[in-house]
Amino acid sequence: MKVRPSAPAVGTALARAVTQGFGEWQAVSFLLALNLTVGLLAVAPAIPQLTRELGHAPLAEGKPLLSAPVALAVLAAMRDGARTSVLAPLLLLGLLQLFLAGGIARRAWLGDRFSAAEFLGASGRLFARNLRLACWSGIGLLGVGLVAVGSTTLLQRLGHPPLFTLEGWVNGNLFSPWSLLQIALLALCFAAWRLALESARVLLWRDDLRTTRLAAWRGVRAALRAPLAVAAFALLIGVALLGVFLLARLRASLPEGTVRWAVLAFLVGQGTLWVRYAFQVAGAVFAAEQLRQP
Q1: Residue 2 lies in a domain
Q2: Tell me: the pLDDT tens digits for 7-18?
C-alpha cells in the first residue's frame, strides 16, 4: 500500500527538483540551442532577400535600430517574396517539444552525466509514444476547461462575479474573493494535469511502457494520490511564470537604438528561455521524485 508523502517530504522533493533543474545547465543549454535552431529555420527564408535589401543598412544610419524607415524597408522586402511562414515554425516547435520529452524524462530519472547522444537517443525512442500520450493528455486538458466553464456558470448563478466574464474585465472587477477562489481551483486542476503528464512521461522511460493509455492512467493516479504534491507543483508553476515574467519585463524595459543594447536585449531574451527550460526540467524531476516515493 502506497503512503501519501508528507509535507516535509514534498518540500524536500520540490527543493531537490529546482536545484537539479538549474543544475542541469548542459541539458538546459542543449534545449536552448535547439530552440535557437528552430528560430533560425523560421527566419532563414528571409535572410537572403533582407541581406540584399538592407545588407549595408543605408536607411539605418544615425537612426534607432527599430526606426520607422528601417521597419518600412523590412516590410517592403517581405512583400517582395521574403515573407516567412508563421504556422510552420510553431508546428516544428511543438513537435520538437514532444521529441525532447523523452530525453528530459531520462535526465529527470537518472540525473547522470549529460550526453547529447543519449539524450537524443531517448528522445527519438520515445517520440511516437510521447506523441500518443499528448493525445491522451488532451482529455485531461479538456477536463480543466470544463472545470473553468462549470465554475464560471456556478458563480454566475450564485450571483458572484467570476473571472472569465466580459463584464468583469470591462468594469475592472476582476479580483474578488470568489474569483480568487476560482483561480486557485483552476491552478490546482492545471497543476494536477501537468503533474500527471510529467509522471506519465517519466513512466514511459522508466518502465519502457508501450501502451500510452496505461502510462496516462498511471500518471493520473500518481498525481491524484498526492494532493500535497499537486499543490507544490502549482507553486513550482507559479514561481516559473513569475521568473519568466520578470525577465520578460526586463527585456521590454531595455532602451533601443544601439547595437550594444540590441545584443543585451537578445541575451536577456535567451536568458528568459533558459530559465523556462530549467523549470521544465525541474517539473520532470519533481514528478520523478514523487514516483520514487514508497
Answers
A1: no
A2: 778 888 899 999
